[in-house]
Amino acid sequence: MVKRDYYEILGVSRNATKEEIKRAYRKLALKYHPDRNPGKEAEERFKEISEAYAVLSDDEKRRQYDLFGHAGIDERYSYEDIFRGVDFGDIFRDLGFGFGFDDIFERFFGRRPTRGREWRRGADLRYDVTITLRDAYYGKTVELEIPRTEKCDTCNGSGAKPGTSPKTCPVCHGTGQMQRTQRTAFGVFTQITVCPRCNGEGTIVETPCPVCEGRGVVQRTRVVEVKIPKGVEEGSHLRLAGAGEAGEKGGEAGDLYVVVHVKEDEKFKRDGSDLYTEKRITFPEAALGTVVEVETLDGTTKLRLPAGVESGDVFKIKGKGMPRLRGGHGDLFVKVKVETPKRLSRKAKKLLEEFAKELKSSE
Predict the structure, then answer these.
(1) Is the pLDDT of residue 253 over 50?
(2) C-alpha of 323 from chain center
């Protein structure tokens, strides 16, 4: 089943503020909350709006969704990660509810979430590259200078000074979360919040690495080689796995997405794997037929034109179009344009007048 747009689900615009998103979710969640509106349909709607809110209320998840749509979320986050860190209790506290991440997750997936810190995957990066149609025909290798965060080699991403290691947080005992049980008229609810001592990491770096200052990552600019395949089309996304931002504290690196743009060509128009061009010929060539030389992206080729060709006639040359990614080539379509001479010598004019008389007498 195709997922609906998160903004559409909450009924907000793509440039909505965090407060507007929160208000929209609160209104819908009150309407579809299972304790107020029992039934399978309401439960499914509640799941849908809660997932949309979990993504759009988080800056990084929202950025990934805006760039890559649902693929940017599904490929990077587990279901648990989508909801992790969202304080649902904050939205309903004044109304007597009080459910948190654990309750949301158990209601959705039938189990309590796992404990312990799961380090987030690094952010995906996007770069745009513009090439010529000829580059797209032959394929091209480009080099991109990409500033990105990378794992600190000094501390191997731990954030701790070499010779030391992070300590288990004494407040949350390594879970990264604080749990509070609240009894309401609707039952007993458990609210989960981020541990304020370790900021949800579960560990504390007492002696930070002097190079990355405890972050576990450093900023570097790398030259990344990107191989653009033959036949690439406008707007194609090339994915380089692991070439994005480093994950936090040794987490998996994100991916690099290169978006290819193909400039329009002066001589050729493209439609998928087919190419279109024009060939100008003289009136005698059109009347008598001829063999013309047609320019292609890999040189030239011969095209035989029959007698009586008219302007606008189109001829196909098989296999002279763009390469297809899965093999083979498209075709080249040549549109004929018959040129009418604007200046004639006396002799040429006389010959044409005789030709016109001959045509008229033969009718």
Answers:
(1) yes
(2) 24
The CATH topology of domain 120-155+212-263 is HSP40/DNAj peptide-binding domain (2.60.260)
Is 98 a residue whose pLDDT tops 60?
no
CB atoms within 10 A of CB 316: 12
The pTM (predicted TM-score) of the whole model is 0.59
User: What is the C-alpha to C-alpha distance for residues 230 and 6, in angstroms, rounded to an integer?
Assistant: 36
**DSSP per-residue codes, 261-283:** EEPPPSS-EEETTEEEEEEEEEH
**Which helix (H) or strand (E) covers residue 295, if one does?**
strand 290-296
In this structure, the number of other CB atoms found within 10 A of the CB of residue 262 comes to 22
| pLDDT greater than 70 at residue 15 | yes
Across 219-225, average pLDDT: 93
Q: Which of 222, 240, 238 is nearest to 230 (CA)?
A: 238
Closest CA to 25 of 52, 43, 4, 44: 52
H-helix segments, the chain: 6-10, 18-32, 40-56, 59-68, 70-74, 79-83, 88-92, 101-109, 133-138, 283-288, 346-361
- Determine the Cα–Cα distance for residues 318 and 334; give it in Å rounded to an integer: 11
Domain range list for the chain: 120-155+212-263, 269-361
For 49, 170, 237, the CA distances from 102, given in Å and listed in that order, are: 17, 22, 37
The residue among 248, 260, 257 whose CA lies nearest residue 60 is 248
Q: How confident is the model at residue 241 (pLDDT cuts 50, 70, 90)?
A: confident
pLDDT at residue 238 in the model: 92
* Beta carbons within 8 Å of 161's beta carbon, 6+ residues apart: 155, 207, 208, 209, 210
Homologous superfamily (CATH) of 269-361 is Urease metallochaperone UreE, N-terminal domain (2.60.260.20)
Q: Which residue has the tokens 């909450």?
A: 10
Q: Helices 40-56 and 101-109 meet at what angle, rounded to 10?
A: 130
